[in-house]
Amino acid sequence: MAARQETPAPSLRALERGLQLLDYLIQVKESRLNRIADETGLPASTAHRLLQALENHGYVISEDHGLYRLGIKGQWFTAVREPIRQVLEELRRQSGETANFAMLVRDEMEYVERAVTDHALSFVVSIGERIPLNCSALGKAILAYRPELLEGMVMERRTPHSIVDPVELHADLDVARHRGFTVDNEEYFEGVYCVAVPVFDGTGAPVGGVSVSGPTVRFAKDQAFALASDLKVAGERISHLLDDTMGTVRTGNRQKRDDVYHGKKEI
């Protein structure tokens, strides 16, 4: 007699369907809601609900008119993770400090990979931890090129140095766009300095950032600014890795993005 197959619990069934959607997007890179529902055999309402959950956790990004594509965490299931780790390791060797890669998830930055310094004294944020946009170099690297995210944002004050005044933050972001990188001068954690550049995907959108951080007794403005060119090279390399994952880069976006890494003032 054949073994009886148990009906999956609702939570397990939702997980299986979510993974089904993720598998589909890994194969096609991007697709619209109606086609996703047709190709996966899921009701459009169910597909939409699951895609929203995947987006909330950074695995999927939605665009206008029901278009969905892989987010950086979704791309982590492709071959991109190890090459990005290698870029971070090289940046760690160049700087002697911890190199980080984070992605934008809703209105926060989430750490997804890092290469930790060999120094005993270090500041390391756990993978999966999320940090505010307004008081972190990684967050400001996004805000510099997506100022619309500032609308209605609640400015978090983590230290006495955190920028919570919108006018002051806009001025700080203007300077960042002109020099091509952002800094966090003890704004997220006292005694820690951080420098970051944005990372762009194949659509030309800033979706993440790469940074180097260290204790101010060893790593501050002079060291961070001297590292800026190496950091831009790392950001450009990771952006190109995301290009390869996403497929063809949309016309004009590569040049706009590369202007950030090669001394042009703004995109």
From TrEMBL:
Domain IclR-ED: 66-244
Residue stretches making up the HTH iclR-type domain: 12-72
InterPro entries: GAF-like_dom_sf (IPR029016), HTH_MetabolicPath_Reg (IPR050707), Tscrpt_reg_IclR_C (IPR014757), Tscrpt_reg_IclR_N (IPR005471), WH-like_DNA-bd_sf (IPR036388), WH_DNA-bd_sf (IPR036390)
BP GO terms, sorted: negative regulation of DNA-templated transcription
Pfam families: HTH_IclR, IclR_C
GO MF: DNA binding; DNA-binding transcription factor activity
Keywords: DNA-binding, Transcription, Transcription regulation
The organism's place on the tree of life at top rank: Bacteria
Name this polypeptide is given: IclR family transcriptional regulator
Species whose genome carries this gene: Sulfobacillus benefaciens
